[in-house]
Amino acid sequence: MKGIRRLAQELDISIGTVSRALNGKPDVNEQTRQRVLEAAAAMGYMPNQAGRALRKGSTGVVGFMMQSGSQITGQGDVFFMSVFDGVQTVCARHQLDLVVLLCSSEEDPDAYLQRVVARGFADALIISATKRHDHRIEFLAKRKIPFIALGRSLTDVGHPWLDLDFEGMAQTGVDRLVARGHSRIGVFAPNDDTNLGYVFIDSYRDALQRHGIAFDPDLIFRTYPNDRGGHEMGERIAAMPAGRRPTGFILTNEMLTVGLYRGLYDCGIRPGADFAVIGRHSTHAQYLNPKLTCFYLSLRDLGIQLAESLLATMPAYAEQYPLGVVRKVLPLELIEGDSDGPAPR
After folding, report:
1. Is pLDDT above 60 for 228?
2. pTM of the full predicted structure?
3. Does residue 237 lie within any of the structural domains?
4. Are residues 85 and 300 in contact, defined by beta-carbon separation less than 8 angstroms?
């Protein structure tokens, strides 16, 4: 308390106001908060985090659980870093810290989450890569731990979630390729039971049926969502008999596109000329030649929405974020490029 008392004396304000300003309480105006933070920084004052956690019954930490490993992210992640930036932007408003919880691809996500919760170092959690039936959702709900899911699931406890519009990607992608004369349209699906694969494939089948095109299970390519997986898909496509291979392709994962381009080129198939590709926008994909036709979503804005929707479920922040329980599918913007040319004769 000595540090807070000294700060209060220096600024000629009450100890309570200094404490609330340091803890990000909403009843302190922004000008006063900045005065307190600047004075604390000048004096080198750092609050005792362990003591604060005991007094408040909280840690000031938000955990973001994601899976890691070469099979998941390949040579590097291009999705989550921008999402993290958005989440941290919101956390910083309230002096909360974002901690990334990396679950190895070789470990059971359920067991990993149970261990994290048992250690009790996060007040709230964001989970990703939701499964068709996801035990983590039921576990967190029973423990009454605030959380939000990045992705839908058939496991539903009335929890908040945000998800990308994979149905819209399938419908728009199929419509666009059919309009260019393609009838054999391949798609990517995850190897595991990640729910987005089911959502996307169901919508893909509906779109084909709407156009009177028979569904062919051989045109669903399952692989790991990384650049190596994309390259292997390109080789598998090239190895198919000419009359059986797809002439166009829709990707839901941004990491696959670079690998697919290279795999096709290595096999003498030119994207955009011999083979149509529609993918997801990424910092890497924007340098591809031909320019990729792709679906775009601001990942930083996604992170901001995730964090605000999470705080809306926490009593300490619900008044500032009166959003209720957010359950929302986020639309993506189609950016036209040159990669989805007409079907070859």
Report:
1. yes
2. 0.82
3. yes
4. yes
Contacts of 294 (CB under 8 A, 6+ apart): 257, 278, 279, 280, 281, 285, 334, 335, 337
Q: Are strands 333-335 and 293-296 parallel, antiparallel or unpaired?
A: antiparallel
What is the tally of structural domains in the chain?
Answer: 3
Q: Is the CB of residue 278 less than 8 Å from the CB of residue 294?
A: yes
Give the count of alpha carbons within 13 A of 166, CB side only: 23
Residue 317 lies in a domain: yes
Q: Verify that 67 and 6 share a domain, yes or no.
A: no
Per-residue pLDDT at 54 exceeds 90: no
If asked whether residues 172 and 290 sit together in one domain, one would say: yes
pLDDT per position as a tens digit, 308-339: 999 999 999 999 999 999 999 999 999 999 99
Residue 257 within any structural domain of the chain: yes
Q: Where are the beta strands (DSSP E) in the chain?
A: 61-68, 97-104, 124-128, 147-150, 161-164, 185-190, 220-223, 248-250, 276-280, 293-296, 327-330, 333-335
Asked if 185 and 284 sit in the same domain, the reply is yes
Do 303 and 293 reside in the same domain of the chain?
no
Query: DSSP letter string over 171-204?
Result: HHHHHHHHHTT---EEEEEESS-BHHHHHHHHHH
Residue with tokens 């031909």: 290
> Is a pLDDT exceeding 80 seen at residue 82?
yes
| 222 vs 51, more confident | 222
The answer on 156 and 197 residing in a single domain is no
Residue type, 292: L
Q: How far is residue 229's CA from residue 91's CA, in Å, rounded to a whole number?
A: 35
Are residues 217 and 203 located together in one domain of the fold? yes
CATH number at residue 256: 3.40.50.2300
Q: What's the pLDDT at 71?
A: 56
